Automatic annotation (TrEMBL), chain B:
Organism whose genome encodes this protein: Liquorilactobacillus mali KCTC 3596 = DSM 20444
Protein topology in the membrane: Peripheral membrane protein
Tree of life domain: Bacteria
Stated name of the protein: Oligopeptide transport ATP-binding protein
Pfam families noted in UniProt: ABC_tran (PF00005), oligo_HPY (PF08352)
Keywords linked to the UniProt accession: ATP-binding, Cell membrane, Membrane, Nucleotide-binding, Transport
């Protein structure tokens, strides 16, 4: 097991290195410069600025300098926000995004599992159809439409939750729902498909022959076996949500990282692009490892290294 | 006379399909006495499995019991609610399934899978149920049960898994055990072991067995009585000797004739296929495939004719007015043996 983990960690680092390299050179291929008012600057000024930010050096040297900095935990300084280190920019904003993403994921997956199971148990009845229609709507309605609707009806008309801003838990409820409907619909669809399969299998028939109740069969036998395909989906989805959603964060004025990332790309803020990309990739490789471990916990047949717990 | 624990009378089951109602079980009656083994024999689609599923209340959603009764002691199983059936299933009537490779939950330790019926029916705590699961694992011949109780199904071979399925079925000491082709999916060498185990356990825990199979070879060593099913009906039933050595129905002849024996050089087959049960034939369902069919066979359904107190067959050949026919040579050989056996018996008596 330890050997396996070491090997996995090595591959993770290798992946991150490749991501850093590819992103760096692709980024340098983007047109434009980081300067917002370049047309008003003299060539002299541009030269001075380039020197100050190290952009006058050849690209491969810039790459090596960046890589060296990253190894020491230095992600550089943002171009947009004068003299703010990227690491500070990320750490001060990732909290809100991560909390929101995690909450949305938990909400979506839990409710999705319940709805999906319910549809599968009542297969080919109106309940199933209703659940399917709901998940299609959930999947196809853009979350900003839902966000605005929630703001108008729940926050403005009913006044149950704040419309926007970032304060306590009550501020997170509406954005969590808006953000969580996507994973909810996806989960419901996955669980329904998986469970319909599982419910027609022989071991469910055996469970019925044991005299177990319907709920007991679903809870103890069907659910776990239907979760396997879902695990693949959940990991990367969680990372994607936790690293910020520009639209939702904008609508609810949440000081998250999603907006920063988009802004950094449009303004050629190289260090921020690199920083956020590396954060996203790091999250992804860790989650993929976790997914593999969780697989083994759920399904003993694919347990790592093959010898029990 | 032995206590009668199960009495199925005039059972009729239809399956609703898009094409119409499939009459899967047509007027089936049989009974089961305490401690005996009844084999239900027939080819695929003859209604063996549907019959047993109705005993468990496990019929598919599109199945409908159109008529008849299933008396378990003095209660009609067909009148029970799902909740009441849950209390009978696994406790009084248990079942062994055909394919041990797929009938165990791949994500649950086998100890828990065996303990589940105990926790449900005997309200046992987990610890106590596991202790009992360990005992039954020993009983079904799992080596090193203390270690293996914590393992998952994929860590067992097919034969071992079927032993576990048997353990699950027997853990509550059911009065009736339904075995639905329990050896079909197993290697021939393992088959014999599983059959021996079932016989051994039957005497230990005094259960009655309904044994479903299409393999007459398996029946000979297992059953006390045999019922032969064809196209949703029982066509002949009797003691195992009566069916094997004095069969009367042409379909039973065909089945026995297609079984390899030491002397057979050529394996016979029954020509044709079973009838479509969407629209079952009017007369004897086997008439179209039978070399012995008479005119009346396609016009009128034969009633059961009594051969002995325990032996009945539904064929017009037994009617007093029917012409004498000579069964296939293999059957004639068997009937001669039977005559000798009965003679010996009457001498002894």
């Amino acid at each position: 097991m330890r050997k396996y983990l070491l090997k996995r960690v090595f591959y993770m680092l290798l992946t991150l290195f490749l991501v850093a390299t590819i992103t760096f050179f692709l980024m340098k291929l983007m047109p434009g410069t980081p300067y917002s008012n370049q047309e008003k600057m003299t060539p002299q000024q541009i030269k001075i600025m380039n020197e100050q930010y190290g952009l006058n050096k050849p690209v491969w040297l810039q790459y090596l300098i960046y890589l060296g900095g990253m190894l020491h935990g230095d992600l550089g300084t943002s171009f947009q926000y004068s003299n703010q280190p990227v690491s500070y920019l990320i750490s001060s904003r990732i909290g809100a995004s991560a909390q929101l993403g995690l909450q949305a994921m938990i909400f979506g997956v839990l409710v999705g599992i319940i709805i999906g199971s319910f549809a599968a148990i009542n297969r080919n009845t109106w309940i199933d159809t209703l659940c399917t229609v709901l998940s299609i709507i959930g999947k196809s309605v853009p979350n900003f439409v839902l966000a605005v609707l929630l703001q108008f009806y729940i926050a403005l008309k009913l006044g149950w939750f704040p419309i926007a801003d970032w304060g306590g838990f009550s501020y997170t409820v509406l954005p969590t729902i808006a953000l969580g409907v996507g994973p909810l619909a996806e989960t419901a669809r996955f669980i329904r498909t998986g469970m319909v399969d599982v419910l027609s299998s022989d071991y469910i028939e055996l469970a019925r022959a044991k005299g177990l109740t319907k709920f007991g069969i679903v809870y103890h036998h069907a659910l776990r076996n239907s979760l396997i395909p879902l695990v693949t989906l959940i990991g990367p989805y969680t990372v994607a949500l936790m690293t910020g959603s520009m639209v939702i964060e904008n609508i609810f004025s949440i000081p998250g990282i999603g907006e920063q990332f988009v802004k950094s790309i449009t303004t050629n803020d190289y260090p921020t692009i690199m920083g956020v990309t590396m954060l996203f990739s790091a999250g992804l490789v860790v989650v993929i490892l976790l997914t593999d471990i969780v697989y083994g916990i759920i399904d003993p047949r694919i347990r790592l290294s093959g010898n029990g717990d | 006379m032995a206590e009668r624990i199960l009495d199925v009378k005039n059972l009729e089951i239809n399956f609703h399909t898009y094409a119409g109602d499939v009459k899967a079980i047509r007027d089936v009656s049989f009974h089961l006495d305490k401690g005996e083994t009844l084999a239900i024999v027939g080819e695929s689609g003859s209604g063996k499995s549907v019959t047993t599923k109705s005993l468990m209340g496990l019929l598919a959603n599109n199945a409908e019991v159109v008529g008849g009764s299933i008396m378990y002691h003095d209660q009609d199983i067909l009148k029970k609610s799902e909740k009441e059936m849950q209390n009978i299933r696994g406790k009084d009537i248990a079942m062994i399934f055909q394919d041990p490779m797929t009938s165990l939950d791949p994500t649950m330790k086998i100890g828990q899978q065996i303990a589940e019926p105990l926790m449900k029916h005997k309200k046992m705590e987990k610890k106590k149920a596991w202790a009992q699961a360990l005992d039954i694992l020993k009983l079904v011949g799992i080596v090193d049960p203390e270690k293996r109780i914590n393992e998952y199904p994929h860590q067992f071979s097919g034969g071992m898994r079927q032993r576990i399925v048997i353990a699950i079925a027997l853990v509550c000491y059911p009065e009736i055990l339904i075995a639905d082709e329990p050896t079909t999916a197993l290697d021939v060498t393992i088959q014999a072991q599983i059959l021996d185990l079932m016989k051994e356990l039957q005497s230990k825990i005094e259960t009655s067995i309904i044994f479903i199979t299409h393999d007459l070879g398996v029946v000979a060593g297992m059953a006390d009585r045999v019922a032969v099913m064809y196209a949703g009906k029982i066509v002949e039933y009797g003691t195992v000797d009566e069916i094997f050595y004095n069969p009367q129905h042409p379909y039973t002849w065909g089945l026995l004739n297609s079984m390899p024996t030491l002397s057979s050089t050529l394996l016979e087959a029954i020509p044709g296929t079973p009838p479509d049960l969407l629209d079952p034939p009017k007369g004897d369902a086997f008439a179209a495939r039978s070399a012995y069919a008479m005119k009346i066979d396609v016009e009128k359904e034969p009633p059961f004719f009594k051969v002995s107190d325990t032996h009945y067959a539904a064929t017009w050949l037994l009617h007093p007015d029917a012409p004498k026919v000579t069964p296939p040579t293999e059957i004639v050989r068997r009937q001669k043996l039977f005559a000798k056996m009965s003679a010996n018996k009457s001498v002894k008596a």
